[in-house]
């Protein structure tokens, strides 16, 4: 039997958040609807973050209210604090994500607090999500290197990954935020991390700066990871990580997964409609 690998589509959030020009709410909705039709099980639709920090996500509630919801799809959103979670609950998100960093420099740049403070801030988020029966995903950024602090020690990644799982995240997505990873540095990270953490509790979130993200997915598959984040059309980046390009293009990620003999269940033809919307943004 073919083993299934989950592609977590993050384009509407990680892809769009970094667009300088305002993307109309209707375009965001059309993109999410096109992705729903392509068969993704999880789509990260938006972020309930400060609009001062990420203006592109200011229409999160309108987006969630107007997408055509497909029952089989889980619509997720980022929630950095309790206020974000309350808004995500009001908007009917199926799951949320808290996000921390493995390096202090990026934590301060992205969340305006230390790593430990960010975890403290997540405690009430986890409590309310648990009470509401809402699954919470965890992100850990800068797992290979930080644009401010340089290379990240694997031990720091182990420590914060375990903390995110301990507070109740069902999975931790490992962010190579600036796409610095090589198969060598990722292998070194797994050598530490996988002694302590089940690979099925991890996801790979590889930005594709140097075109190595597909190789990192291949290596992660070899180590037992079965969930990867990708962004339709390779759109995006992080506004608080200078030089961060988009996540790996969804099509390239799916090609790698299929080449390795895993199933993913995505309708590659239907994906074209979402890709055309992204291409229209690039051309605009
Ligand atoms: P702060 O300035 O320290 O906190 O920001 P604050 O409490 O003073 O809030 C600032 C303003 O935002 C206030 O409004 C709050 O009311 C408001 P003002 O008084 O200035 O008018 N505010 C909110 N508004 C809406 N929704 C909220 C919310 N919270 C506060 N939830 C804060 C702290 C966490 C809010 C801020 O740092 C923030 O929003 N950061 C988010 C940054 C972000 O979204 N980055 C991109 C996503 S992470 C990423 O891309 C990496 C990832 O892809 C993985 C990887 O690649 O590594 C996940
Ligand atoms: Mg990212």
Describe this structure in words.
- The N and C termini lie far apart (44 Å).
- The chain is 43% helix and 16% strand.
- The protein is globular and about 45 Å long.
- The protein has helices spanning 11-15, 25-38, 60-66, 82-90, 104-111, 115-132, 154-166, 183-193, 213-222, 250-259, 268-283; strands at residues 6-9, 42-47, 74-78, 95-101, 136-141, 145-146, 150-151, 172-176, 202-206, 227-230.
- The model has no long low-confidence stretch (mean pLDDT 95).
- It has 284 residues and is of the alpha/beta class.
- It has one domain (6-283): TIM Barrel, CATH 3.20.20.
- The side-by-side strand order for the widest beta sheet comes to 9-8-5-4-3-2-1-10
CATH homologous superfamily title = Aldolase class I
Query: End-to-end distance, in Å?
Result: 44 Å
Whole-number tally of structural domains: 1
Structure class? alpha/beta
Query: Can you name the CATH architecture?
Result: Alpha-Beta Barrel
Largest β-sheet summary: 8 strands, parallel
Share of residues in strands: 15-25%
Write down the Rg: 17 Å
Number of strands: 10
In short:
The protein is α/β, with parallel strands linked by helices and 284 residues long. The protein has helices spanning 11-15, 25-38, 60-66, 82-90, 104-111, 115-132, 154-166, 183-193, 213-222, 250-259, 268-283, and strands at residues 6-9, 42-47, 74-78, 95-101, 136-141, 145-146, 150-151, 172-176, 202-206, 227-230. It has one domain (6-283): Alpha-Beta Barrel (TIM Barrel), CATH 3.20.20.
């Amino acid at each position: 039997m073919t083993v299934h690998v989950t592609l977590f589509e993050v384009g509407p959030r990680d892809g769009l958040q970094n667009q300088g020009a305002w993307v109309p709410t209707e375009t965001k909705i059309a993109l999410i609807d096109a992705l729903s039709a392509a068969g993704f099980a999880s789509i990260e639709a938006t972020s309930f973050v400060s609009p001062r920090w990420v203006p592109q996500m200011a229409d999160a509630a309108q987006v969630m209210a107007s997408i055509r919801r497909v029952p089989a799809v889980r619509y997720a959103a980022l929630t950095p604090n309790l206020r974000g979670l309350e808004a995500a609950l009001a908007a009917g998100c199926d799951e949320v994500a808290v996000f921390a960093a493995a390096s202090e420099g990026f934590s301060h740049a992205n969340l305006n607090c230390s790593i430990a403070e960010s975890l403290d801030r997540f405690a009430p988020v986890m409590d309310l999500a648990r009470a509401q029966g809402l699954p919470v995903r965890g992100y850990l950024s800068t797992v290979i290197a930080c644009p401010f602090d340089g290379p990240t020690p694997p031990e720091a990644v182990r420590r914060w990954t375990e903390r995110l799982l301990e507070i109740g995240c069902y999975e931790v997505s490992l962010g190579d935020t600036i796409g610095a990873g090589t198969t060598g540095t990722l292998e070194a990270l797994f050598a530490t991390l996988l002694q302590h953490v089940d690979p099925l509790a991890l996801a790979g979130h590889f930005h594709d700066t140097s075109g190595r993200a597909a190789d990192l997915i291949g290596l992660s598959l070899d180590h037992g990871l079965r969930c990867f984040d990708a962004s339709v059309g390779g759109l995006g980046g992080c506004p608080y990580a200078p030089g961060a390009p988009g996540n790996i293009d969804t099509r390239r990620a799916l090609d790698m997964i299929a080449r390795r003999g895993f199933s993913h269940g995505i309708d590659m033809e239907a994906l074209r409609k979402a890709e055309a919307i992204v291409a229209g943004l690039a051309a605009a």
